[in-house]
Amino acid sequence: MIGIISAMQEEIQALHKFLKNEKIIHKGMRTYYHGTIFNQEIVLVFSRWGKVASATTVTQLINDFDIDEIIFTGVAGSIHEKINIGDIVIGKNLFQHDMNASPLVAPYEIPLLNKKYFETDHIKRNLLKKASHSFLSDFEYFIQKSQAKEFNIKNPTIFIEDIASGDQFISNKQQIQNISNNLPSVVCVEMEGAAVAQVCYEYHIPFSIIRTISDKANDNSHIDFPKFANQIASNYALGILKNYFELV
Question: Domain 73-247 is in which class?
Answer without folding.
Answer: alpha beta
